[in-house]
Amino acid sequence: MAGAGDRAEVRRIDEPAVRIAAIRGTTHELPLDAQHNTAGAALLALRKALDLPHGFELILHKGIALGSGMAGSAASCVAALVAANALLETPLPREALYGFAMDGEAVASGGRHGDNVGPQLLGGLTLATHERVLRIPVPAGWHCALVHPHFVLETRKARAALAGDYALGEFVAQSANLSLLLAGCFRGDAALVREGLKDVLVEPRRAPLVPNFARVKQAALDHRAMGASISGGGPSVFGWFEHHAEAEAAAVAMRAAFAEAGLDSDAFVAPIDGPAAALVNDEQNNCAWTVHAMSDALRYLSTRGRAPATTLGKAIAAGLAPDGGLYVPERLPTLDPADFDPRGSLADTATTLLAPFFAGDPLAAELPVICAEALDFPVPLRALPYRDAQVLELFHGPTAAFKDVGARFLAACLRRLPRADERTLTILVATSGDTGAAVGAAFHRQPGVRVAILYPDGLVSPRQAHQLGCFGDNVRALRVAGRFDDCQRMVKAALNDAGLQHAVPLSSANSISLGRLLPQMSYYAHAALAFWRERGEPLNFIVPTGNLGNALACLWVRAMGLPLGEVRLACNANATLPEFFAGHGYAPREAVATLANAMDVGAPSNFERLRWSFGGDDAALRRALHAESVDDASIRRTIAAHAREHGEAFCPHTATAVHLLDRLCEQGDDRPWAVVATAHPAKFEQVVEPLVGHAVDVPPALAAMLQRSASAEPLAADDGALKHWLR
């Protein structure tokens, strides 16, 4: 099935050995000793059989929980084998890897069984014997619904249940059922499958080990399943269906049946004739491959690797992972420029770009509407009146800042996510200036939601402060007696407090939320594709950077294979990132106040995601990015010079990027660059207008906000103070 899966990164090494460098994801309890690990044992068998002079180093990313009945041990084994095979001078056919995969599976199961590794190698439904594996044809429209309860069924218990004698009649009946099932698949005859998809040997003995199994199975049958039973050793339960819609409806009912037993669960719906292990990407030196053992529908992992994998919808709803980490997709999909409509709008580009991230999630069907609803304002790529330079204007939304894109998209997603808890959901947001207003506008008067905006008192511009406090109704502004990093810490502490979450349902709207980060990729893709179609070369970007969400979105677009060139980070006097990229250790510190206040961040939250994106390899990260600090004096000079010489008015944040562009021009860099304009200069009139020598026109939406009354409540810079306010 497409859905949850393991990922293996394999690199060829000169040493004639197999090394497991790390195991990440849903479990860290697997052995690093290759002989006692399914993936390691499979590669050892491959090396020995082929008498290879070199060895392999691998990193495993576990996306399938152990003891789930979802073939987690086989997934690692097959992913590692397929990746290693791609590194051979003459790769073997998939079928030739079958024996090595069984060698690896034997480490976990105690015997060379092919029932799990076979379908992962070839995809779909397979017949696996001790000697060979064959793919069985299945009608394309047939789907499987698999529901995995959050319950661990120990393998030893599942095996012990099968001990004892079996009557000959049971074997005869099971053989007849298997024959009917196979005949039904080959002939595409659902009636034969309905007659044969019955387990009279194993299911009766293991059913008592799966809580509420009879009700879960009946839920599948009530929704026209051709048959249903226990997946592997359990506790997961599956059903086969002729149609996708039936499988989706059944999955909901099966989850409800598990809920009756007090168990939460995850559901996967996919074609039975699903994908095989797939190569995801290779590095430029062609010495490493990454393989996902069960691809298509993405699962989302914590950057800290101590939380279960989850779906996109659940990751968006939660905001922060249970272990305090940030959610990331288990892999970044790849796309080609030809996948996009050259005449499409920003919403069309976003729909195509984000479809792989939403695949298999209940939100997937709503994605086009979400994009159309959230991205209904322009983000023009405008040529600057000098050299080969562009400006990507992201401030034409309701609050005149780029944060409108992510906030509106997140709000549109949350409106469509079902919630079992009927209590009001509180959206927490820490802001250094622009985020809070965008979130407030996106959620203002939305039923069932209240918003708490935390901002550093006295450290945002007057117009920003007015925006934050002008909504009223379900949006409350809290002026914190501290810095942005204090606000951010307080929000994270509240989201990580299980007792508080039980009393007050919480979520986040900061850039730690995937619901904000993913849509920000859309304007980079849209601009880069338009430039590439016109000029036939990639566009390079300079991104004003504070909490790193906007820059990370740009990098992910490039990692997905779209024509986007170099990315440079423009920071203000807060030098945490520039110092790191200059070779120093990552050293978060207290933020200092600057003219570019929305970037006043000393501990960027998204650095965790950035590091994850490069596999924790700081050297590779430093090779891929460059960051520079721009002080207040340089910001002032840049704003004044460009107003005087070119008639341009930039906000202080955009001015940091323009300053870097000027330096590149002085150094003779003639590549095409785009500076990212993150906010309208009218939001910072006290800084900008004296420098440009005239009043800056205020956009109508911003002017309307400034006409409203505004207020904010004081709050101490203390975790307990926020928790007390929330209760």
Automatic annotation (TrEMBL):
List keywords of the entry alphabetically.
ATP-binding, Nucleotide-binding, Pyridoxal phosphate
Where N6-(pyridoxal phosphate)lysine occurs, residue numbers?
K403
Under InterPro entries, the record lists: GHMP_kinase_C_dom, GHMP_kinase_C_sf, GHMP_kinase_N_dom, Ribosomal_Su5_D2-typ_SF, Ribsml_uS5_D2-typ_fold_subgr, Thr_synth_N, Thr_synth_N_sf, Thr_synthase-like
Give all residue intervals belonging to the GHMP kinase N-terminal domain.
38-124
Q: Which residues form a coiled coil?
A: none
Q: Which cofactors does this protein require?
A: pyridoxal 5'-phosphate
Q: Which GO terms describe its molecular function?
A: ATP binding
What name goes with this protein? Homoserine kinase
- What organism is this sequence from? Dorcoceras hygrometricum
